[in-house]
Amino acid sequence: MGVELKKEWLFSTRSGKVFILLMSILFLAVLTPIMLKAILPEILLWQFPEMPQASIDAMINASQQTSITGFLSDLFELGLIIIVFTLGGSMALELSENTLVFPLISNKKIPHIVLSKVVYLSGLLALILMVSILVNYAYAGLLFAFDVKLLDVLLSGLLMSLYFMFVIANIIFWGVLLKRSIPASFMSLLVCYLVSVLSGLFNIHQYTPSGLVNYASTLTFTRNDVIMSVVITSVIIIILVVVSIKRVEKMELNTR
Amino acid sequence: MIKIEHLTKKFNSFVALNDISLHVQQNEIYGFIGHNGAGKSTTMNIISGLSKHYQGTCVVNQKDVSTIIKAGDLNIGFLPENPQFYPWMSAFEYLMYIDQSKDKQKIHQLIEWAGLKEHAQRKIKGYSRGMKQRLGMAVALINDPELLIFDEPSSALDPQGRSEILQMMIDLKKRGKTIMFSTHILSDVERICDRVGMIANGEMIFEKSLQDLLMENVKPILEFELSKELHVDHQNMLKNVENVNNLSIKNNVVEVTLKQRRPSSNDLLKTLLELGYEVISFNQKRNSLESLFIERGNNNGR
């Protein structure tokens, strides 16, 4: 599977996908503390010129914790769109453009091909996410004060990474099903937002993948809080990947 | 090497292949001819293990295709009609990715054989169609399979590109490979094939050796350029000469199609001279498989 991972690495770097994801997520990581420190107070002051500075500060509640939770929320709301549309064609294009024909005839295995995509893209996102969250942590700490434990931040990053693995499994699954990049991206996005909305409506976050985002955003969670969400998300990821593999194995390949 | 019996393939209600049978023997070049949409690619996809859900049997390299777990188990080389690579890789990187053994020397040899030595480090997205076809043939050879399936390898190429691909296939046959290739370019078939199978509208029309096919279907033509136009009365006299099938006259040129491939030129020359014509030039030709292709293909319309 090492060869497959190397291929994914070559593709993501040469197509500029790594650069797009890294820059976008880093941008959000740097922007959140700046928003809290400089831009939001200026906007409020411009909207309410008579308002005293103390009231503005109280409204914004600018701190390292607010910055990190804000960044994690932005990751779900904005980052998700960037990720889904950047990586939407990962599996769909392989099928629609028949690029799997030569590898499969030459004895490559479909499970290896699909798994390498899930593992590589999840790993890549986890790495970018951890780097960005550390940048956000350090920058917000410098601008305000270091009032959050680094371990809590790293654990939140891990929860978000698992959530993004669920997103990747979704992208692969819909890519296999629809064989088209844009529809697969839209369906993945729809599922992610729908899961979040329904979980909120029925208050079942702890039983759905969106619970990972919720708990990660609080920065203060116990193992018992998240264990159910982690287990259920992991099971869903496995199901999505297995179904995707089985579907490709039964698929007519080299179609026009 | 390939044994197909009563193969039927449907896409929903559309019957793409209807009860076809064909056999490809060891170390032969088998030409699989047919119009666009006749079912050539569907057949080749099934042979390569890429297309599932069919009726009938397809045995490749002594393996029943319906029982294989993955396409690679058949140990064949396959060049699809539109070979698709990763355009952001170079030919060398692509072959290294495909090759299980990671044998750099083998990759270099394949690149050289495909005539891509000077382009090995260039990204594939900059390759011409001919270069992609040659790279595809190199990829098909990566595991050194005995059986090679090429789907329209020369169809979209210019004459030089076509000639190169045909020469590569001849080389491969000399190396002991068995090749099945599909095409609708009949001159390619006449040039390199040992046996030919024709499919039209999903049905097998015939399967025979090229020699038999030419003997049975391709008629010799004698072309005479005369000093004057052939008189109408004399046309019937020429038609009555033994072995003459048909006459066609264009100004002073008379084209005589013979019934069988055996010498009849002496009789015809004698008759023309006796009738008082001076023969300025004489040329022996034969019609190609083209007419057979059109006739059989059209007769099988559904």
Brief account:
With 256 residues, chain A is an all-alpha fold. Chain A is 82% helix and 0% strand. The longest helix of chain A is centred in the middle third of the chain and has 34 residues.
Mean pLDDT of chain B: 88
Low-confidence blocks of residues of chain A: none
Task: Let me know the number of strands of chain A.
Answer: 0
The computed structural class of chain A is mainly alpha
Task: Report what the structure shows.
The complex is a heterodimer of chains A (256) and B (302). Chain A has one domain (2-31, 63-249). With 256 residues, chain A is an all-alpha fold. In chain A, 82% of the residues lie in helices and 0% in strands. The longest helix of chain B has 16 residues, at 159-174. In chain B, 32% of the residues lie in helices and 30% in strands. Chain B starts with a strand and ends with a helix. In chain B, helix 2 crosses helix 3. Chain B is α/β, with parallel strands linked by helices and 302 residues long. Chain B has 2 domains: 2-215, Rossmann fold (3-Layer(aba) Sandwich), CATH 3.40.50; 219-286, Alpha-Beta Plaits (2-Layer Sandwich), CATH 3.30.70. In chain B, the strands form 3 sheets. A 6-stranded mixed sheet of chain B has the order 6-7-8-3-9-10, with helices on both faces. Chain B has a 4-stranded antiparallel sheet with strand order 2-1-4-5, covered by helices on one side. Chain B contains 10 helices and 14 strands. The interface between A and B is medium-sized, with 26 and 34 residues.
What's the layout of helices and strands?
The complex is a heterodimer of chains A (256) and B (302).
Chain A: H1 2-14, H2 17-47, H3 53-60, H4 64-87, H5 89-96, H6 101-105, H7 110-143, H8 150-178, H9 181-201, H10 210-218, H11 223-249
Chain B: E1 2-11, E2 14-24, E3 29-33, H1 40-47, E4 55-60, E5 63-64, E6 76-79, H2 91-98, H3 104-113, H4 129-140, E7 147-151, H5 159-174, E8 178-183, H6 186-192, E9 195-200, E10 203-209, H7 210-217, E11 220-226, H8 232-239, E12 244-250, E13 253-258, H9 265-274, E14 279-286, H10 290-299
Parallel strand pairs in B: 3-8, 3-9, 6-7, 7-8
Antiparallel strand pairs in B: 1-2, 1-4, 4-5, 9-10, 11-13, 11-14, 12-13
Helix pairs in contact in B: 2-3
